[in-house]
Design brief:
The protein is mainly alpha-helical. It has one domain. The protein has four helices and no strands. The N and C termini lie far apart (about 70 Å). Keywords: Membrane, Transmembrane, Transmembrane helix.
Length: about 140
Amino acid sequence: MQTWILVSKIVRNVGLALAAFGGVILAWWTLTPERAQASSAATQAELARRTHVTELFNRAAGQLGDERLEVRLAAIYVLREIGRDFSDLANPVFELLQAILRERQADYRDLDPPVDVQAIMATLRMRIADDDKPVA
């Protein structure tokens, strides 16, 4: 009788172990598509964000030539933030701002340059200061 009890306990434990193993396999099999779907959604969100930033960049670049000072300043500040937040767009942003400065080359003598030119110079100075910081 003791032998049958021992055998039944062993069979029960083996059965429970197999059921647990089967449960793990089913859980993994069920979660794999969901994980792929989450990854796809994250990729789509990043792509939408990049599209939005590219649109902002293009709009700001067009607004740099606007007649109104406030529109030009807003464009400069938008480009500054794009350059900060997206390192791969930092160089195009700052090359664009440098080109604007070269285009507006003027001798201001003792006068202060226009506010938008000052904002561009401040942005470029920030970029130079960021480049000079040691990387940890």
